Amino acid sequence: MAGELEKSLLNQHKEKHFTSGEIVRDIIIGVSDGLTVPFALAAGLSGANASSAIILTAGVAEVAAGAISMGLGGYLAAKSEADHYKRELQREQDEIIAVPDTEAAEVAEILSEYGVQPHEYTPVVNALRKNPQAWLDFMMKFELGLEKPDPKRAVKSAFTIAISYIVGGVVPLIPYMFIPIAKKAVLASVVLTLIALMIFGYAKGYFTGNKPVRSALETAFIGAIASAAAFGMAKALQG
Amino acid sequence: MAGELEKSLLNQHKEKHFTSGEIVRDIIIGVSDGLTVPFALAAGLSGANASSAIILTAGVAEVAAGAISMGLGGYLAAKSEADHYKRELQREQDEIIAVPDTEAAEVAEILSEYGVQPHEYTPVVNALRKNPQAWLDFMMKFELGLEKPDPKRAVKSAFTIAISYIVGGVVPLIPYMFIPIAKKAVLASVVLTLIALMIFGYAKGYFTGNKPVRSALETAFIGAIASAAAFGMAKALQG
């Protein structure tokens, strides 16, 4: 009996579908660092008298490392969330079957936090008790605040972040591919990257519902600060 | 009258306090990339015949740039979430005052998704209507799934991530400070960083409730892949 109930609960548990908001968020994560760190690294090294060849090598190596670290890191984080959700789902289900009165009391407590009186919430609690599938969904969402993750999300997320990082990272490095004197290449890189940062910042603001112009300026500002810091550190070490 | 209600709602809106879980998450974010990318960059450049001096310069510049990009980026993201929350709070409050019947219908819809019948949820809906503050809290949490962010969280988050990145990034670079021949320094860096990655991975698993040993191996694996990619790209460009 309990086995049937378990199987039924797990099979019918509602799936949450993700919107394109997740993809946009991953692109923002990848491009934000991708446009900033390789740019700053290259600009910093140009101040330390490195050649365009060395700078390009360092830049490309950093883009490869960064894309993998962020991509695989994002994948593991998403998988970890999925495993966490599965464990919590199993535990809630066990509690609903083993200690239903305790779980019912938790529902009552959740509703009473909103000033709802016992005689007002008791019909709701009883309705949930008669519908274990809905009860489980309710506990997952309202007690634990967890949504069922899409199993394919982890892989999609990893690739989106990694590719975004690579696309972002290549932009500042392009001048170093064509201008062998680093101190000249860096000027082109600064112009190219600042423009890219402002366009990206504007788009980011537009998609996240924040003021696009302010977002453009903030994003360019981070790039400027990061490259100034990299420049300063490189000069301090190499003179 | 509406003004008094508004002021009262906004002043009394419950605050959500964050647990140390936020700090642990930020440390994990910073150290994960900090231990991986500078390590991989340095290892990659050592394969391209760069000196320890150049590698140290590139590594330190990258750590500075990465800490700022992630720190400031994290700060802006947290502020953006806080602004989003404020806008949504204002909008829900306006709707509660202007179109209460529509909002009441939304509460009914939320509860009916869990199989609760109208005669069962109507007392709850009415209870909320009599208590605008609780009603607002309910809509924010159960319709929009938003929690009130701590205003100081953005700054704390930025510093935690940035400092974690720096601490993580310095570890792989230490050998290059003392061993001038890069091809020798890299061996020490690999050993030191692999140990650090495994210790960090183990701790990460422990704190996030995942198998610590598996987490240790996964974390070290990412470091290995990232450095192999960086090494490969650097060799391809410099030979």
Automatic annotation (TrEMBL), chains A, B:
Membrane topology, as annotated: Multi-pass membrane protein
Catalytic activity: Fe(2+)(in) = Fe(2+)(out)
Pfam families recorded: VIT1
Keywords of this entry: Ion transport, Iron, Iron transport, Membrane, Metal-binding, Transmembrane, Transmembrane helix, Transport, Vacuole
InterPro entries: Ccc1_fam
The keyword Transmembrane helix is annotated on this UniProt entry: yes
Transmembrane segments annotated in the record for this chain: 53-78, 158-179, 185-203, 215-234
Compartments it resides in: Vacuole membrane
PANTHER family: FE(2+)/MN(2+) TRANSPORTER PCL1
Subunit structure, as described in the record: Homodimer.
Function of the molecule: Vacuolar Fe(2+) uptake transporter.
Domains: entry comment: The cytoplasmic metal binding domain (MBD) is located between transmembrane 2 (TM2) and transmembrane 3 (TM3).
Family in the record: Belongs to the CCC1 family.
Protein name, as recorded: Vacuolar iron transporter
Organism: Penstemon davidsonii
